[in-house]
Amino acid sequence: MLRTLWADFIGLIYPRLCLACREPLVTGETHLCTGCRAELPYTDFHLLPPDQNPLGRRFWGKLPIRHALSYLRFVRHGRVQHLLHELKYQGQRDVGTALGQLYGAELHAAGLATDFDLIIPVPLHPRKLAKRGYNQAAAFATGLAEGLKIPAANTALRRTTNTKTQTKKNRAQRWENVATVFEIEDPASVIGRRILIVDDVLTTGATLEACGAVLLAAGAAEVSIAAIACADR
């Protein structure tokens, strides 16, 4: 009782805010308010058969993947864009971890935890990592690992070239930009493993495709991909 009263008192002075809309959370809410939880554009791709998953079709003929997953749909100027902006540019790494925990719990409930052995995030170049202070994809991977109850290897992949932003490039340019910039830190750690590669946003899929190709070439048994949000092409 005293602990609850104290928590309520602290909440009045330092209110916990919804990660999406920045409104104060009420008792019983964590990370996201009830309104945002109800209105976020969830994909539910993990509930679809692989041949009916529109995200998986983006990789047909390019990379053999088992699962193509995205928690949310990217909607410009909406809650999802705000969440990603907070994660990437406002130092709010907890956004990535919290969304990973929520999505990981959903995937676990759907029985997908047994389909993966290891979670690996798309890496940042050391210079960009030093500037930002953290890897937003690694924050998401950490949360997913907690929700799925499987390990994450946040340094398993290394980005060897500090590539230019992908934002204004078409698919061919994006692939050319990342095709040869990833290396595996410890090849023995991925041999025979079923790997879930994760990133914050999936547009053309070129970055995840490049990472998957490197992992398969190193002996990974299979790869799947997951993102916080996917953009319509």
From TrEMBL:
Residues 137-229 form the Phosphoribosyltransferase domain. It holds the Pfam family Pribosyltran. Residues 10-42 form the Double zinc ribbon domain. InterPro entries: ComF/GntX_DNA_util-trans (IPR051910), DZR_2 (IPR044005), PRTase-like (IPR029057), PRTase_dom (IPR000836). Transmembrane segments: none annotated. It comes from the Bacteria. Belongs to the ComF/GntX family. PANTHER family: DNA UTILIZATION PROTEIN YHGH. This is ComF family protein.
